[in-house]
Amino acid sequence: MTPTPRIVVLSAPSGGGKTTIAKALRARYPDEFGFSVSATTRKPRATEQDGVDYRFWKPSQFLAGVNDGQFLEHARYGGELYGTLRSDVQKILDSGRHVLLDIDVNGASQVRKLDPEALTIFILPSDPRVLVQRLVERGSESSEQIQRRLERAIEEISDARLFHRWIRNDDLDDAVESVKRAADEYPARFARDPKDIPWLKSYLVDLQSERQRPLR
Ligand code: ADP
Ligand code: 5GP
Predict the structure, then answer these.
(1) Which of 126, 131, 138 has the most ligand 1 atoms within 8 A of CB, as the residue to mutate?
(2) Ligand 1 closest atom vs CA 170
(3) pTM for the complete prediction?
């Protein structure tokens, strides 16, 4: 149990490590963090299980959910629909745990408007080459999809300024502990290292040139 459970949004460009960090937090602190299992219309990856990683819904079921007001937020990403179920979030908060949302920057902005107590965290490996490498090595998308996700990454990084924290995902343990510390701190406050502003600016430039290279 945590004294003040809250929504903790983890956003990152694809390959940034939000799913890995959310899993590690739950494994390490099962009594303090729960994970909201989103609904999506995209197809499952080989390792993904329905009801565990996502709820894999047909588009008609998803749209019915939207009409019924089942979603706290929802957004389109890569041509597919993704949404956070209100019931899931409430269940986890009622159990006295922080609820982790692994959602895109559009979803994060919807949550920010709905819940001023929510903490929003943007995650990135320090080096854009590592971002590309992790995305390629994950092996879950075609090279075309990877190119589209990298294009989208550039837009997402431009929105990083709206997030309370920027956490570097180089060493996984460090990143997990940084999220844990931030989640336990009240109220949510903007705490960003001023040195990270030039870092993010150059990230955008470097990622543009990484995108021009053939994927390895
Ligand atoms: P996202 O959910 O943001 O798209 P993932 O969590 O799937 O990203 O991570 C992308 C890939 O990078 C995965 O293969 C994961 O195992 C790997 N990864 C994530 N964090 C680290 C880390 N700190 N060190 C090394 N590999 C990592
Ligand atoms: P992926 O297909 O790689 O699992 O996820 C693609 C993007 O959709 C990621 O940025 C992920 O965070 C986001 N996403 C996953 N679930 C949700 C959700 O419920 N709502 C929103 N807005 N985005 C989501």
Answers:
(1) 138
(2) 23
(3) 0.96
